[in-house]
Amino acid sequence: xxxxxxxxxxxxxxxxxxxxxxxxxxxxxxxxxxxxxxxxxxxxxxxxxxxxxxxxxxxxxxxxxxxxxxxxxxxxxxxxxxxxxxxxxxxxxxxxxxxxxxxxxxxxxxxxxxxxxxxxxxxxxxxxxxxxxxxxxxxxxxxxxxxxxxxxxxxxxxxxxxxxxxxxxxxxxxxxxx
Length: 178
Hints:
The protein is mainly beta. 0% of the residues lie in helices and 39% in strands. The strands form five sheets. Strands 8, 10, 11, 12, 15, 16 and 17 form a seven-stranded antiparallel β-sheet that branches. Strands 1, 2, 5, 6 and 7 form a five-stranded antiparallel β-sheet that branches. Strands 3-4 form a two-stranded antiparallel ribbon. The mean pLDDT is 86.
């Protein structure tokens, strides 16, 4: 299954390539940058009911990792799973030192095999071409897995990281700070 490139009358184009749309409202549009887009900048066009905004140019990087948060603002409680019990990482259920956490991220860049933008994850996993490093509580974490999340849309990456020794107790429930 492939996500559509039009949602509620909204379309987004990156260098003229229609992008899959996850969410749209009067104030925000969330789209997936197509894997085929390369270069140092990209021209973005947004249209609603075929009325286009002026094209704007934004920087483009091979990767631009970002963490998902529960409140969808990029700050606050991390959207992640404690691997030991499969439950969300919360103040009531913090990860423990030496255990694994699986945060949901995006911006992994091109994958092996090559990503198909908008495609829902299939039976074979994709992994990022470029290496991933993770710090938790300011300390390097061991990355056990980094790649697609089964059944989820291409562009959503899940990693499994071992929480390193030496972290403070307050780091065990992961919050994103701006």
